[in-house]
Amino acid sequence: MRAMNSPALSADRIASIDPATGEAIAEIEVTSPEQIPQIVADARAAQHEWGETPLRIRCRLVRRLGEVIYRRRAELAELISREVGKPIVESQLMDVLLSLESVRYQTRIAPAELAPERLPHSNPAVRAKSGWLLREPYGVIGIIAPWNFPLAIPIAQIVPAIVAGNAVVLKPSPLAASVGAAIGTLCAEAGLPPKLVQVVQGGGEVGSSVIAARPDKMIFTGSVEIGRQVAEACARLLIPCLLELGGKDAMIVLADADLGAASSAAVWGAFYNCGQACVSVERVYVERGVADEFAPLCAEKAARLRIGPGRDANFEIGPMIGVAHIERVEAQLRDAVARGAKILTGGKRRTNAGRCFFEPTVVSAVNHSMRLMREETFGPVLAIASVANSAEAVRLANDSEFGLSASVWTRNSARGRAIAAQLRAGAVMVNDVASYFGIAEAPHGGRGASGWGHTHSRLGLREMVQVKYMDVDRLPRWPKPWWFGYSGELSAAADSFIAWMYAPRWVERLRNLRGALGMVFRRGRV
Ligand code: NAD
User: Fold this and answer.
1) What pTM, to 2 d.p., does this model score?
2) pLDDT digit string (tens) for 268-314?
């Protein structure tokens, strides 16, 4: 909704704004919704040839996209930090590096993952057949992206989509329109066929026009509220969709954890990208015995973080993306304080740094009656609750409509794994937070309101193909035993066959062997 309401978006232009200064950095033309059916038709035409292009050549061209990203890495990181405000180190490590890693990994696994797979048959009646699983591109994949990882999220979806032989129509967030436009330029510079990856610009209306133009699959990353609208629109047109939505990630800190490492992780996990990450630590459940030590450690580390424009490499906390979002964070904090929460540090705007800066905030004495513990905050707030034991921590961590990721902190890794198994989340890390998002092999996907389907990893590549089962009969002239010419004799043979295959006792099976063979070698008579 924030993207739709952004003051930066008018009917025909998007003013791309630096959130640190409020300055306009570019003006981008909005794509008219009337153009979108033609754009999708052009993508479809481009896909026909691309889908027939050998995989090795597709991978070579996608690697060239990686080379262009690599060559332009410094200017891309600078643009990302200017347009969405994140610290330059995060633009490098979380957008540029992740994009390059996606190119490297997906082009490496594609030959094995997309190769036809032999499916041997175990049933003797169909032994003469050879079965195959083929993985074919969908056609045109529509990608609607959020603003917070404006390069990494679209690239990590475009790369497997085109490696698998699809064309893409990407709609970036209007809050990251310049980075979105840069993605189009990178693809052209890499020499990808024209119209294979097209970027359309605008807000919700343009997003819903992409869906209405009937791509063959939609990949949506964004809020629960818009995700629900996208899922409904796709359902009406029976378009499959993948949803990567919000999170409310829990961190469980057991009494035996290394509190120094755990508190640094909590602070980094809650405040990187100014807390505006789907996978960010929003709730901590710490065992009572160590809570009095852990919470002040977090507060002290948060208070030391340096706040300022992300383009300057010495700052750790950049601006939030907009004032409306700060207001949402403030509303959650007001509600929490009114219900008894205690702000240990932060809790205020840092107006001397600029209009969108908010202090990293650590809150204790929280409970689930507070919006802060139930709704996605998507801002720089770390809420810490103390719990009696690990069972209570697991119960509270699972008491959420979200299920994106979680973490468990303990020196006993067997105990960590056992707790991880009880958590309702798409990914659980033991003794680390969030970094799985940068591991190319690790699937990323949510449960419940956090979405469905996977990106990244080989599962992310498989999302870009549809499976076709192919069956080749090696005795093409043999009339099949189950074909017409039914009779009592066939019925008896069928019964023997069933008994031979499935009777619980071997004697019974053997008794039916002859009749069963009569079935297997029968020739249909009509
Ligand atoms: P958002 O839902 O406001 O917007 C996402 C995209 O949807 C934007 O491109 C927007 O223009 C478009 N859109 C808006 N209305 C639409 C409509 N009616 N039809 C089609 N498209 C429409 O989200 P945001 O503010 O850009 O991103 C923040 C949210 O994204 C947070 O909730 C965050 O947790 C989530 N997120 C999730 C993941 C993940 O992988 N699970 C990753 C990043 C962000």
Assistant:
1) 0.96
2) 999 999 999 999 999 999 999 999 999 999 999 999 999 999 999 99
Q: Is 241 a residue whose pLDDT tops 60?
A: yes
Taking CA atoms only, the protein residue closest to ligand 1 atom 42 is: 278
Q: What does each C-alpha distance from 130 to 67, 119, 123, 466 come to in angstroms?
A: 41, 7, 12, 20
The enclosing H or E element of 510 equals helix 506-511
Span from the CA of 36 to the centroid of ligand 1 (angstroms): 20
Q: How far is the CA of 378 from the centre of ligand 1 (A)?
A: 12
Q: Is the CB of 146 under 6 A from ligand 1?
A: yes
* Owner of token pair 């690697």: 63
pLDDT tens readout for residues 178-226: 999 999 999 999 999 999 999 999 999 999 999 999 999 999 999 999 9
Whether ligand 1 lies within 6 angstroms of the CB of 180 is answered as: no
Q: Could you tell me which CATH number the domain at 33-245+458-467 has?
A: 3.40.605.10
Does any ligand 1 atom lie closer than 6 A to the CB of residue 173? yes
At 200, list the tokens.
Answer: 């359309």
Mutate to test the pocket of ligand 1, among 30, 200, 219, 221 (most ligand atoms within 8 A of CB): 221
Ligand 1 geometric centre to CA of 165 (Å): 26
427-to-60, 130, 295 alpha-carbon distances in Å: 32, 37, 25
What is the domain class of 249-436 according to CATH?
alpha beta
Q: How far is the CA of 175 from the centre of ligand 1 (A)?
A: 11
Cα maximum dimension of the chain? 92
List, in order, residues 6 or more apart from 60 with CB less than 8 Å away: none
